[in-house]
Amino acid sequence: MSDTPGVAAAPPPALMRRVTFAAAVGNTVETYDYAVYGFLTVLISKLFFPGSQPGVALLSAFAVFGVAFVVRPLGSLIFGSIADRFGRKPSLVATLVVMAGATTVIGLLPVAATVGVWAPILLVACRLLQGLAAGGEYSTAMTYAAEFTPQRKRGAMTSRVQIGSVASLLLAAGVVLLLSATLSPAAMASWGWRIPFLLALPLGLVGLYIRSRLEESPEFRALEQQAQVTPSPAKESFSRHWRLIVLIFGVAAFQQIGYYIAFTYAQSYLIQLGFTQKEATLATVISIAVAVVLVAAGGPLSDRWGRWPILLGLSAATLVLAYPLFMALSSASSLGVAILMTVLLGVMPALYTSVAPATYIEVVPARVRATVFAVGFALAAALLGGPALYVSQTLVRLTGDNRSPALFLMFGALLSLVAALVVRRRPPQVLAPDVAPAAGVRAPEEV
Length: 447
Fold this sequence. Notes:
The chain has helices at residues 13-39, 41-48, 54-70, 72-85, 88-106, 112-115, 118-146, 154-182, 185-192, 194-198, 200-212, 218-225, 233-240, 242-272, 277-305, 307-330, 335-362, 369-385, 388-399, 405-423. It is mainly α and 447 residues long. The chain has a single domain (13-229, 240-429), classed as Growth Hormone, Chain: A, CATH 1.20.1250.
């Protein structure tokens, strides 16, 4: 039994494997699309903003990276509402189509030398479409997977889905590294940069095939059977559950900032320290490879130890260690030291990212789960994750201190530390395959 009565028992392992893969494949495409842009930012700044000073061009390219996050809240309302009103599956299919299509078009765009100012305008348009899709993709995929999973295994399940996101960073970095190693700088600037974006098309088609064969989640089916589907998910979310939106924003703060600083900005940061693009991408690839292992481990640990102690511990550790890590990284005198510091910088964000998704899902009731999760997470993405590259680079330019990006990372950790203390006081939602909650335990929406 669950917060939605009358739901069937946990599904068989074969179905769970299919659900996990279907949820993960969309996250893989989404994060791959974002990561490719991040890893090619330095090159894109030269192709789409050639008339600017190098530093200004890089900031412009980072701003275009961030603009996709501005529309994420709108996308969260659109696709989160679809998931809560019509089902998780339609939302999963729609987000994947929009994301893969927009990324493929980026690979076909003319550059500024060909069409002038239209080049950055078209680039921004494609990034806006990516942002709309991303606003609902991650939250709906996590919600879908979790609604098939018993609470005692929910951390492990959502961390397996999260592996798709981190592994796609590894895929994107690997593709960029391979192209950088095999193509000349001239060839890379002429046509090589397009290849990673065009690969989104076959990835998207595979994902679309898999998701089109999904069945609806047991939690949403139970809502339909009992006529409990909300006719206005957005209105109900903001009128009755706005505190949960704020809570999810707080939990997501460190995930958003840490993820993009450690696994995207770090590559550009190393290039600015004097390392070549090949060396910087290699360091990032190794860091992401380690992160994949940590993401796989973090979810199961949270099933044993609880979500909030891990979230709290990682946030506190980041407050203490972020500045020393940036200090060591900024003064790295060899590639080996740079790789080690880059790996260490990614340890805490990776573990945090593996635990946070189950937390988001467990604090929100089923009727508005996809919308509340999507909106809270999208707001964190728009206000913190998207600007992370731009803010980090701006801090360096304004202060002249290469260690200053640590301050933004510490800010996110502080917000999430406070949120983890709030999560501690909230009993988790009991989802579809679970047994009934103990007598006297209130659902989170009643707290």
